[in-house]
Amino acid sequence: MSETPDPAGTAVADRGRAAVEAVLQGRSRSAAAISLLREAALLPVLAVLIVVGTFVNSAFLTVSNISGIGQQISALGVVVVGESLILLIGGMDLSLEGTFGLAPMVGAWLIVPVAAFGAGTVLNPYLGILIVLAVGAAVGLVNGVLIVKGRLNGFIVTLGMTIVLAGLQNGIVKGNTLFNLPAAFSYLGSAYLGKVPVSLVVTVIIFAGTGLFLRYHRIGRAIYAVGGNRDAARAAGIKVDRIRLGVYVAGSILAAIGGLMEAGRVSAVTGQQGYQEGIIFAVFAAAVIGGVSLQGGRGNMVGAASGVILLGLVQNILDLANAPNYWIEAIDGTVILFALVMARVIGGEATAE
Amino acid sequence: MTEDQVRAASAAVPAAEAAGIHKQFGSTQALRGVDLTLWPGRCLGLVGRNGAGKSTLVSILSGIYPADRGAVRFDGAPAPALGAAGAWRRQIATVFQHSMVVPSLTVAENVFLGRQPQRAGLVDWRQMRDQAAQIMAEWGFSIDVNLACADLTVEQRQIVEIARALAAGTRCLLLDEPTAALERAGIERLFARVRQLTANGVAILYISHHLEEVFEICQDVAVIRDGELVLTGAATGLSKDELVSAMVGPNVAATRADLAPGGARPRGPATPAPEPCLVVDHVSSDSPGGRVTDVSLEVRPGERVGVTGLLSAGVATLARIVAGAAPYETGRVLVGGTGPAPGRRDLNLKAGVGYIPEDRQAEGFVAALSVAENATMTITDWLARVAGFLRPSTRAAAAAPLARRLSIVSAGLSQTTGELSGGNQQKVTVARALARQPRLIVAITPTRGVDVASKSLLLAELARVSDETGAGLLLASDELDDLVICDRVIVLVRGERFTEFTEPPFDREALIAASEGMARDADPPPDSDSEESR
Fold first, then answer.
1. Nearest 10 degrees: CA dihedral of B375, B377, B383, B387?
2. pLDDT value at position A335?
3. Which of A165, A291, B221, B455 has its CA 20 to 30 A from that of A157?
4. Cβ–Cβ contact B254 with A under 8 A
């Protein structure tokens, strides 16, 4: 039934007026509390994990371990922001995995010497970083044009794109690993500000900035409208196609930044960075655990961030517990499923805020 | 007929009975002690305003949610357990406003959906087709059971749903706004079907906002208001006015006169005609939803122009073209002298066109977003401060006056729009269109599925806006009640401009005749009494 319980009747006018006044006095306290509860749905799970981690290994709650987790999840986190944006407009992009590998690879290829399997152009590393971003933007643009203008299915387009990108990535360096990355290129992924990794700082800024943008910017709100009901958004005069296209480009650029962080962290770019680890599964898991709806229009950055942190903690605890290597993925997957159920039980459906 | 006589006539046991039903949602008491009885062979009309509790009652009778207190009985026996969907469906079936058939399956498959006849564990296709055809023949429905439901008309899909209920052995039907998507001839056929079903002993609960329909086919009427049945009785003993005042209640009744659009408005001194705010110049479009062929019209500031015709006549297509929601192949549409690109709703909005789309579920609002956000979705550029950022409180403040004027009933402007009742969702859609202070409002069937009082309120608000701001109104509707506020009405037949009525009040019969392509004679007879034109 489309009609939900909703009292009309004798006191319609009074009630309406009261409601309006309640709103003018600011959002009601209970509604705010509920929304906070939903956004923080994963907090109990994270708390349990921290307790478990503390018991598993005394090294867990140390500054160096925590900052290590931070550095490890930063690259993933940036890609999750990109995927979340794309999920919010009701799309999906599998090829962020390919962009995550190809973009830093092309950048590095053009700046490292031939001896390190470079192209021989040995460009300025800063130019290389720009190229990384440009490759991300280009991939997103191609995806976006095919999906939005060409009206092709996003799942299939980006699945095909993933394979193309992975093939290019491996083909350009013929399976070799690029190393000897200049300091400027690997700064983002490897440098520390005191004890805090630069990548973590940048990732937190990206999460916070994107979160504020989504909540308070007209385009951010339009993203929710487009994902929630594309036709209604169009009827309200929102430039639906332009926003979808823009989000595909933004998502790919974020994936390229994530790839740059990863390259810096490991000081190399392999021919398989991205799809070797199957990073796209972790990206989807984090976003969905964090309450970003696969149907579009629902989810927020607080949730997405907690999804990323959860995956990082689980990985770290399994490492510290010396979990048997052959079983680590099964355990990892089980914990993810468990977290998904917990998040739903506690938080219900994610909100559009 | 009194209830005792009914009982005697239909041999005792009610087909379905709700006794003392209470239902609460959060702090909202949706139903307070409702008693409702459906007798075999009788059609009971249930009327009430949006949010009065009709849908909750239907959901409880259909076993979608449990009652907090009270009991549901079928044929005198207690209702099946809530989870036993199959058992409920054998007792009672609901035909909802929105079609519940699976488009990609055939008619026969839909009739036997979820309970296909089987042989050796596999679907027995031949038997399924034969049985479906037999049911169609038995009840006099003529639909080929091998067609895919996607190829059926709305009316035929409704028949499939009724046939599905009958095939399950159900002798108790709930029809929820069954005429909302039907053309006039389809409605007549539906009525014939309802009469035939009741003649064969089926009990029907008929829910409608159209009181004439209730009087036409229902033997009994029940009025629900604020979760209580405030009036029940035989239809013959009640007048339309009695029903309306029962629906609206004592408090609001006094203000009803103010809300009602009072037919033709007083005409001011004949001012020289200003430049038209809308020029449609020889526009043609091949839209599958109803083609438009070589239509021209103009709307001047403050003028209210109705466009009507049969569903397939291109009325909605024309309005969508003007709103920039649909492309057109030839011709020109000028808004305020400029011609936004065809099919570009965003440019059209900037040019000053407010749009109230036909299907509010599909295009009217974003269900997951708040009332305030939906209502102000068209003006985020105005509300934004630095670099496109805007605060939710700004939106709430901008939405508040609209919500007040349109009496949107919500738990607050931050409530998600999907949680509102249908009528209130429609008001949100209207608020969204009016927020930008349009120079031209394009409204397509703006009162569909909206209760009587809200209908008057919406129409009065559209009229008020056009009077006060000088906005032109293009009102495309096949509901003749909507056209009351118009200064003139253009009738389309098969996508072409057929005739125009320029003198309100418009004669109902003449409008209907013109929609059917009859009586090209433009001006209506002078004596259109107010009862007819309402």
1. 160
2. 80
3. A291
4. no
Is residue A168 within 8 Å of A104, Cβ to Cβ? Answer: no
Per-residue pLDDT tens for B209-225?
A: 778 888 889 999 999 98
Pairing of strands B93-95, B172-176: parallel
Choose the weakest-confidence range: A301-305, B24-28, B52-56, B208-212.
Answer: B24-28
B23 CA: distance to closest CA in chain A (Å): 9
| Contact between chains at B407 and A16 (C-beta distance less than 8 A) | yes
Residue B334, beta-bridge partner list: B279
**A240 alpha-carbon distance from chain centroid:** 22
For residue A16, is pLDDT > 50?
A: no
What's the CA gap between B15 and B87, in Å, rounded? Answer: 15
Per the CB < 8 Å rule, is B391 touching A5?
no
Is A287 in contact with A83 (CB distance < 8 Å)? yes
pTM over 0.90: no
Distance from C-alpha of B115 to C-alpha of B519, rounded to nearest angstrom: 50
B226/A10 Cβ within 8 A: yes
The nearest alpha carbon in chain B to A242 belongs to B346
Decide: B62 and B174 in contact? Cβ < 8 Å: yes
Report yes or no: B291 and B285 within 8 Å, Cβ to Cβ.
yes
On whether the CB atoms of residues B318 and B492 are closer than 8 A, the answer is: yes
In 3D space, the residue among B334, B340, B344, B323 whose CA is nearest the CA of residue B432 turns out to be: B323
Spatial CB neighbours of B15, under 8 Å, sequence gap ≥ 6: B38, B39, B40, B74, B75, B171, B172, B202, B203
Is A45-347 in CATH node 1.20.1260? no
Quick check: A12 and B348 CB within 8 A? Answer: no
B388 close contact with A: CB closer than 8 A: yes
pLDDT range class, residue A118, cuts 50, 70, 90: confident
Domain ranges of chain A: 45-347
* pLDDT for residue A197: 94
Phi/psi at B36 (nearest 5 deg)? -145, 135
Name residue A196's beta-bridge partners: A193
Q: Percent of chain A beyond pLDDT 90? A: 62
Residue A31: pLDDT over 80:
no
Q: What ipTM does this complex have?
A: 0.82
Q: What is the pLDDT of residues A317-346, one digit of tens each?
A: 988 988 888 888 888 888 878 877 876 776
Supply A190's token pair. Answer: 């490897």
Residue B379 CA to residue B349 CA, distance in Å, equals 10
Tell me if B414 and A11 make a contact (CB, 8 A cut-off). no
Are the C-beta atoms of residues A100 and A255 closer than 8 Å to each other? yes
Chain B CB contacts of A224 under 8 Å are: 366, 368-369
Rounded distance between C-alpha atoms, residue B80 and residue B290, angstroms: 45
CB contact under 8 A, B377 and A3: no
Are the CB atoms for A302 and A228 separated by under 8 Å? no
> Where in chain B do CATH 3.40.50.300 domains reside?
3-101+152-254, 257-352+438-534
Using CA coordinates, name the residue in chain B closest to A232.
B363
Its CATH class, for the domain covering B3-101+152-254, is alpha beta
DSSP A99-131: HHHHHHHHHHHHHS-GGGT--S----HHHHHHH
Contact predicate A256/A99, CB 8 Å: yes
Query: Which of B275, B342, B290, B332 shows the shortest CA–CA distance to B476?
Result: B290
The fold adopted by the segment(s) B257-352+438-534 is: Rossmann fold (3.40.50)
Mutate: best of B345, B385, B415, partner A, most A CBs <10 A: B345
State chain B's mean pLDDT as an integer.
84
Does B394 contact chain A (CB < 8 Å)? no
Count of beta carbons in the 10 Å neighbourhood of residue B119: 10
